[in-house]
Amino acid sequence: MTESKKERIFCGKCKVELVLKKTDFQYMRFTFNHQVPVCPVCGQAYLSEELVNEKVKELEKNFEEK
Ligand SMILES: [Zn+2]
Fold first, then answer.
1. What pLDDT, on a 0 to 100 scale, did the predictor assign at position 19?
2. What distance in angstroms lies between residue 25's CA and the mean position of ligand 1's atoms?
3. How many domains does the chain have?
4. Contact 46, 64 (CB under 8 A)
5. Rounded CA separation 63/47 (Å)
6. Which of 30, 34, 41, 65 has the fewest CB atoms within 10 Å, measured from its CB?
7. Domain-embedded: residue 10
8. Which of 38, 45, 47 has its CA nearest to residue 17?
9. Ligand 1 centroid, distance to 64 Cα (angstroms)
10. If you measure from the C-alpha of residue 39 to the centroid of ligand 1, how many angstroms do you get, rounded to a whole number?
11. What is the 41 CA–ligand 1 centroid distance (Å)?
12. Assigned domain for 33 exists
């Protein structure tokens, strides 16, 4: 059986499992569109620091190259 390992994240408020959803979100002056875990009840998106750092680095690199 090959089931891809997936992280299960739960909303701290609603105690329901977050679902992956393509979401627009803003961080500082950047806007990202990325699949992030979102609570289906309250709509809270969970952004890992890792993901944010990665995206910011990516964008800053593009910024400098222009
Ligand atoms: Zn929630």
1. 93
2. 17
3. 1
4. no
5. 22
6. 65
7. no
8. 38
9. 37
10. 5
11. 5
12. yes
Distance CA 31, CA 18 (A): 22
Domain containing 49 equals 19-65
Query: Would residue 59 count as lying in a domain?
Result: yes
Q: How far is the CA of 15 from the centre of ligand 1 (A)?
A: 7
What spacing in Å lies between the alpha carbon of 31 and ligand 1's midpoint?
Answer: 23
Query: Would you state the pLDDT for residue 52?
Result: 83
Confidence at residue 39, expressed as pLDDT on a 0 to 100 scale: 95
Mean pLDDT of successive 10-residue stretches along the chain, which has 66 residues? 71 94 82 88 88 84 77
CA distance 9 to 15: 9
Residue 24 within a domain: yes
- Taking the centre of ligand 1 as the mean of its atom positions, its distance from the CA of residue 13, in whole angstroms, is 5
Q: Phi/psi of residue 20, each to 5°?
A: -75, 130
Q: What is the pLDDT of residue 11?
A: 93
